[in-house]
Amino acid sequence: MNADPHLTPKKKRMTLQASLPLIGVGVGILLIIGPFLAGLIRSLLLWVGNDPQVSLANYSWLLTDTRIRTAALNSLICGLGAMSVSLVLGTSLAWIVSRTNVPGRETLRTLNLIPFFFSPYVGAIGWIFLIAPYSGLMQTSLGSLLGVSFEGPNIYSLAGVIWILSLFYTPYVYLFVISPLQRMDAAFEDAARVHGASFWTTIRLVTLPLLQPGLLSAALIVFVTSAGLFDVPLALTATKGIRTMPTEVFALVRYPSDLGRAAAFGIFITAITIVLTLWQRAHLSKRRYEIISGKGYKPRVIELRTTGTLIALAIEVLYLLTSVVLPVLALVLVALSPLWTGRFNPATATLANFSYVLFDYSLTRQAILNSLFLAVTGATLGVMLSGLQSYYLIRVRSGFKSFIDAILALPLGIPGIVLSLFFLIFAIRTPLYGTLAILLIAYIARFFPFATRTISAMLSAIHPELEESARANGATWAQTMRFVLLPLLRPALIAAWIMLFIIFIRELGASILLYASGTETISIAMLLLSENSVGYVAALALIQLVLLLTGFSLFRLTKVSAIQ
Amino acid sequence: MRQDAPDDFVTIRNVTKKFGEFRALDGLSFSVREGGTLALLGPSGCGKTTMLRCLAGLETPEEGFISIAGKVVFDSAKGINLNPEDRGLGVVFQSYAVWPHMSVVENVEFPLRVRGVAPAERRARAMEILEIVGLTAFASRSATQLSGGQQQRVALARALVHKPALVLFDEALSNLDAQLREHMRLELQALQDRLGFTALYVTHDQGEALGLAETIILMNAGQIEASGPARQVFMTHHSSFAARFFGLNVVETARLAAPHAIAGKPFIAFQREYVRISEGVTGPGSDDLVLLGTIATRSFQGLADEYAIDLGNDVSVRVLDRSGAFSPGQAVSIAISRKDLFLLDA
C-alpha cells in the first residue's frame, strides 16, 4: 500500500452492502424470537389474584391432563396416517409420470401439482358436501338411484382428516422425489439389473434407497404439517369432540380462555418441532450423496403394456378426481343452489350466492378485500425480507451462518396457530391487537422461510463472479444488485412471491386467534358462516380457489420462463 | 441352440437399433471367442455404447440375433428378449454406478445377494474378490468415501463376483488419469488370465483398445468400419475414416499439386512419424512421394516438434520431426516412402 493519505480508506460507517442483509436477518430473528419469548414468559406465569407469579404449574398441568394426551395422540395418528398415504401416493405418481410412457404424462405432471395450490380446508368442505353421512351428494345421488338411504363412510372422523390431508399433501412428496427420479444416473438401476436383480428387486434395493433423503424430508414435512394443521380437523372433527393438538390450542384460548396453559402447550409443540427438525438436519447431513453423475444415460422410460397403462392411468384419474374434480364439483353445485338440501336442482340454479358474498354482504366483501390486501402486501414484504436474508446466508462471510440459518428455518415446522397464539400474547395489550397489521406480521413471521428457501436455492446457483465482474467494472454494490443480481434472481423472486400469495390467501391457522370484527379473511368468513349458510361458504370457497388457481397459472408461467 | 462356429462364444448377427429415424446400429454382426477380448472402438455417437447396452439387455434392438455362451438372449425373429438380469453378465459402467447407499462390500456382494446366496458365503466370496482388486481394507467403507480409481475397482469386483462368463466394460478406463489407467490395464489383463472370463470393451480411446483387446472392431455410424487383430487394424487402413481415427494424415489426391504421382486412388494416408522434411526444394528420392509446402506452425512436443505444413490448395498435414531445424514460414519439401503410404478408395 502506498502512503498517499488520500488513498487510505477512512474508518467508514457501515455500508449498504453490510447493513441491508443484516437488517433482513435481524427482522427475521425478531419475528421469531419476540413472540416465542412472549409465549415462553406467559407460560411461566400464573395469576394469583392480580399478581403474576412465576410458576411451572402450566407445565405440570400439561403433563397430567388427559385432554392433552388425547390431542397429542390424535395429532400423531393424523400425522403418521397422512404421511404414510402421501408417501405411497406421491412416490407412485412421481414414478408414473417420470419413468413410464403413460399417455399424456407431460400434462399429468402439471395436473398432479394442482392440489398443492388448493386449500385443504376448502377440500374438506367440498368433501363434506360430497359424503356427509346420509346427506352427501354421493349418498343422495346413489340413494335415489337405488331407492335407499344410507350413511356412507364417516368423513367426520380422524380417518376423514387423514384422507383429506393425504390428498393435499401428496404433492409435497411428489415434488421431493420427482426431480431425483428424473435426474438419477440410470446406471445405478442398470447396474442392479445386469447383475441379476429383477425390476421390483431393483426398485426395493436401489431406487427407493437412493430416493431416501428426499423421501425422508418429504415425510417429515408432511408429518409436521399434518399434525400441526388447524383447519381440516376443525372442519371435520372439532364438532364431534375429537381434538388434535392445534384444535386443542384453539379450545384452550377460547373455552374457557386460559392463555397460560395454551402458551405452555404451544411451547411444548414448538419444542417437539425443533427436535424433529434438528434430527432431520443431522440425519440428512450424514446421508447426503450425489445420485446425479452427469455421465450416465437419462433414466430409462418403462414401456408399459396395456394392463400397466390402465393401472397407471387409473391411479392418476382417481387422484385428480378425488383431490380436485369431485370436491370442486360439489362446491359448484352447492354454490349454485339457493338452498342446499343435499340434492342439486338445475331448475333453481342461481348465481345469487356469488353476487351476495361478492357485493352485498359486508362481512364477506370485506373479507375478500382483507385477504387480497394481506396476500399482496404480505408477499411483497416477505419477498423483500427473504431476499435480504438469502443474500446474507449465501453471499456474506460469517461464522454464525449455520446457526442463523437454523433459527430462520424454525417457523417452517411450527403450527400456524401456535405462532399466532404467541403473537396474540405479544400484542394483546398493544394497539396492534385487532388490526390487519398484526395478521400481516404473523403471516410473514410464519411463512417467510418458504420464500427464503426458494430464493437461497437460486442465489447459490448464481456464480459470485457475475457480481464481482460488475464491481470490477466500476459498478457500486447497489448498481450491481439492481443491474446484475436482481434481474438474475427474478424467476426465484417471482416464484417466492406467488408462493407466499397463495399461502396467505388460504391461511386460517395463523389468522384464527388474531382476527377481530372488520379484519376477517376469506377463510375466517367461511368458518363463521359454516354453521348456517353453506351456499355462501361454497361460493366463498370457489372465489378463493379462483384466486389460488390464478396464482398456480402464474407460477407455471414463471417456471417456464425460468427454464428458458 | 447350435452355435455358428466352435469359437463363437458371443454371437451378434444383423443387430439394428433405431432411435426415431436415427440408426444407431445398422445391421451389425460380429463374434467373440471364449476367453477372448474384443474392443468396440469409435468416436462418440458411432453406436458402440448402444451395442453394449443391447448386449446387456438395457436397450432392445428392432432386429437381430444375440447369443451369449450358447444361450440366445435376443432374437427378433423368434420374439426372444431376455431381461438384463437373466443374461448373467458383469458390467462395469462408465460412471461406475457404485451405489452410494451401500458399503463397498455390500456393493460387491449384490449380485450374489439377488441370486439368493447365503449371507456368510456371499460375504466370503465378496471379500475374496475384494482382495484380488486390493480393496480389502476398504470393505466396510461407504462407497462415497472412495476415490475414482477405487470406485472403479469396486465396480470391477461387483462385475466379477458372480463369475460371469462375459464381462462388459463401458469406457472403463476413460475416467482415470494416465498412470492409474496403465496400472489398471495391466491388472485387468492379469485378472482375465486368472478368472478366464470373456471381455468386451467399449472405448473411444485407441490406446485403451490396443492395449486391452486382442481383437478390435472400429465402428462408424452404426456399422463396422474395420475389424481384426489389434495390430492389423492399427497397421493397415482401408478407409479415410479409419486412417483419420488413428491419427494419420489423410489427403485428397485431387488437391495435390502432383496428383499423377499417386496411381488413381482418391485418398492417401500416412503417419505423422513417417515423413521426412528437408529444407527448400529437393529432388525426389528413388521411390518417395515428395510434396512441397510451407511450415505453418510449430509446436514443441518433447521428444519431437510437430509441424503443420501447408501444401497449398487448402491441404495441411501434420509432421513429427526431431531435428528442431525448421521454423514457421520456411519453404520445405516432405518425403514419404511408398511403403508407408496408404492408398485409399474412400
Distance between the termini of chain A: 46 Å
Query: What is the spatial order of strands in the main beta sheet of chain A?
Result: 1-2
Low-confidence stretches of chain B: none
Number of helices of chain A: 23
Look at the structure and give the mean pLDDT of chain B.
87
Structural class of chain B: alpha+beta
Order of helices and strands of chain A: HEEHHHHHHHHHHHHHHHHHHHHHH
* Most extensive chain interface and residues per partner: A-B, 27 and 31 residues
Account of the 3D structure:
The complex is a heterodimer of chains A (564) and B (346). By secondary structure, chain A is mainly alpha-helical. Chain A has two domains: 230 residues, MetI-like (MetI-like fold, Orthogonal Bundle), CATH 1.10.3720; 271 residues, MetI-like (MetI-like fold, Orthogonal Bundle). Helices cover 72% and strands 1% of the residues of chain A. Chain A contains 23 helices and two strands. In chain A, strands 1-2 form a two-stranded antiparallel sheet. In chain A, α9 crosses α10, α12 packs antiparallel against α13 and α16 packs parallel to α19. The longest helix of chain A is centred in the first third of the chain and has 34 residues. Chain A is globular. The C terminus of chain A is likely disordered. Chain B has 346 residues and is α+β, with helices and mostly antiparallel strands. Chain B is 24% helix and 34% strand. In chain B, β8, α5 and β9 form a beta-alpha-beta unit. Chain B contains eight helices and 19 strands. In chain B, α2 runs parallel beside α4. Chain B has a six-stranded mixed sheet, sandwiched between helices. Chain B folds into two domains: 232 residues, P-loop containing nucleotide triphosphate hydrolases (Rossmann fold, 3-Layer(aba) Sandwich), CATH 3.40.50; 96 residues, OB fold (Dihydrolipoamide Acetyltransferase, E2P) (Beta Barrel), CATH 2.40.50.100. Classes of the chains: A mainly alpha (564), B alpha+beta (346).
